[in-house]
Specification:
Largest sheet: 7 strands, antiparallel
Bound molecules: zinc ion
Helix content: 25-40%
Number of domains: 2
Shape: elongated
Length: 407
C-alpha cells in the first residue's frame, strides 16, 4: 500500500507490485483500484487488497434490470471481488460496481436487490462520495433503492423489516434512511399508477385523486401574475400547462410536480440553488444540490477553504397556480424540507380530466416564488420573509423563463 499526498484527502492506491513474480497456482488478478471514493452497502471497511474474480451472468442481468426499471443511464464496470457485500466506487472518472458472490449466494432476494439498487443509485445520480456530501448522496441512493424495491413488487412491510436489519452506515440514523426509502417507494407507486395506464384518457386516471396543493398557498412568497396576453388564445388548462412546461424545459427545469387547486392546478418546480448576488441560474451541478455549495473556485486554496468555511446558500422554487379563484396567502409558512417534498408528493403529469377543462379569460396564471437562505452560522435554512431578495418577476426573468412565458 502506498500513500500519496493529495490536496483533498490522502488517496489510497492498491499496488499491483509482485503479482507477476509470485503468481499463485490458481491465478486471481489483483484489482488495481483507488477505493477511497466509495459507498459500501454495509457502511464498513474494505480489504486493502482486492482481487478480480470471474464475471457472473446472473448479476449482470440483475444490474441491467435495475438500470432499466430506474430509467438510469450510467456506465460502470461490474466486478466480482472480495468486498463484504456490494460497493460503488469512483476512481478518477471511472465508476465500478463491486460485489461479493459469497454475499449474493447467502443473502435474501430483497437484500440482493436492495444492496445492488442502493449502490447503482449512487452511480445513476453521478455521486462524488465527497464526505461533505455524504448525507445527501446516501439519501438519494436510498430513494433510488426504495423506487426499485417498489417496482420489483416488495411491500412496504418487507422493506421496513429489511431496513431495520441494516447496520447504520455512515452515521445516518435509520429513521432518516427509512424516510428516504419511503419517498422513493411512494414515488414509484404513483408513477406506476399513472404510467401503467395505456392512454392519457384512460378513465382510471380520472379516478386517481390529484393531491391538493396547500390552500391558500403558504405565505411568504413573491408573487407575479403572468400577463393575460401570454395565454389569451388558449382553450384548455392542458394548453396552459403545455406553455408553462415548454418554458421550463427550455431552461432545464425538467423535474416538476402537479397538484390540484380549486378549479385548477398548481405546477411546482424542483428546489434550485441560484446565485444570490443577482438571481441568475447556476449552470453546473450545484444548481440542484439542496445544500449550499460554491460553483466556482479561484484555486486550490480557495477550494480547500470552502470545505471548512460554511457558506451561505440561496434557494428558490417556483409554483405556477392556474385558477379562476381569487386567493391570498395562508398564515402558515413552509419549511425548506416541506417545499422540497412537494416535488415527490404531486403527480408527474396533469391528469387528462383537468387538462381538458376549459380555460377562459376569468382564469389567471400566477407565479409564486418561495425563497430560502441557508446562513453561514448554523446552516439551518430560513425562509426569506417578509421581504424576498428579489421580486417574482425578477426571479422569472433571471431564470430565463420570461421569453417562454411571454413577458
Ligand atoms: Zn451509499
Amino acid at each position: 500500500m502506498k500513500i500519496f499526498p493529495a490536496p483533498r484527502n490522502a488517496r489510497v492506491f492498491l499496488s499491483i507490485i509482485a503479482i507477476m513474480a509470485i503468481r499463485p497456482a490458481f491465478a486471481q488478478e489483483l484489482l488495481e483500484l483507488n477505493i477511497e471514493q466509495r459507498c459500501i452497502f454495509s457502511g464498513g471497511g474494505m480489504d486493502e487488497e482486492l482481487y478480480r474474480f470471474a464475471d457472473d451472468d446472473d448479476i449482470d442481468k440483475r444490474v441491467a434490470e435495475i438500470m432499466s426499471l430506474g430509467g438510469a443511464a450510467s456506465s460502470f464496470d461490474i466486478v466480482q471481488t472480495n468486498v463484504e457485500n456490494v460497493s460503488a466506487v469512483l476512481d478518477g472518472e471511472k465508476r465500478y460496481l463491486l460485489y461479493s458472490l459469497d454475499f449474493i449466494e447467502k443473502a435474501s432476494e430483497i437484500e440482493i436487490t436492495g444492496a445492488l439498487a442502493h449502490e447503482i443509485g449512487h452511480h445513476a445520480n453521478e455521486h462524488s462520495f465527497d464526505p461533505q456530501l455524504r448525507k445527501t448522496e446516501e439519501a438519494e441512493a436510498d430513494q433510488f433503492m426504495g423506487y426499485i424495491l417498489s417496482l420489483k413488487g416488495f411491500s412496504r412491510q418487507d422493506i421496513e423489516a429489511f431496513l431495520k436489519k441494516l447496520p447504520s452506515s455512515y452515521d445516518i440514523p435509520v429513521d432518516e434512511r427509512l424516510t428516504a426509502v419511503r419517498e422513493g417507494f411512494d414515488r414509484a407507486g404513483r408513477a406506476l399508477q399513472i404510467n401503467s395506464l395505456p392512454f392519457d384518457d384512460d378513465p382510471q386516471l380520472a379516478g386517481l385523486t390529484l393531491p391538493g396543493f396547500p390552500w391558500p398557498p403558504p405565505s411568504c412568497n413573491a408573487r407575479f401574475e403572468l400577463p393575460e396576453a401570454s395565454f389569451k388564445d388558449l382553450k384548455t388548462l392542458g394548453e396552459v400547462e403545455q406553455k408553462i412546461r415548454k418554458a421550463l424545459d427550455a431552461k432545464g427545469y425538467a423535474q416538476r410536480s402537479y397538484f390540484s387547486v380549486p378549479n385548477g392546478f398548481a405546477l411546482v418546480t424542483q428546489l434550485e440553488q441560484y446565485n444570490g448576488d443577482d438571481g441568475s441560474v447556476r449552470n453546473d451541478r450545484t444548481r440542484w444540490l439542496d445544500y449550499p455549495a460554491r460553483d466556482n473556485f479561484e484555486g486550490v486554496l480557495d477550494y480547500l477553504k470552502s470545505l471548512v468555511m460554511p457558506q451561505k446558500g440561496y434557494f428558490r422554487l417556483f409554483v405556477f397556480v392556474v385558477t379562476n379563484q381569487p386567493f391570498g396567502g395562508s398564515a402558515k409558512r413552509v419549511s425548506k424540507e416541506q417545499a422540497t417534498a412537494w416535488l415527490s408528493m404531486g403527480f408527474n403529469k396533469l391528469p387528462k380530466s383537468l387538462a381538458d377543462a376549459s380555460f377562459s379569460s376569468d382564469y389567471s396564471v400566477t407565479s409564486l416564488v418561495y425563497e430560502f437562505e441557508v446562513p453561514e452560522i448554523n446552516r439551518k435554512p430560513v425562509q426569506k420573509c417578509p421581504s424576498p431578495r428579489f421580486d417574482a418577476k425578477t426571479h422569472l426573468f433571471k431564470a430565463g423563463l420570461s421569453p417562454g412565458l411571454g413577458f
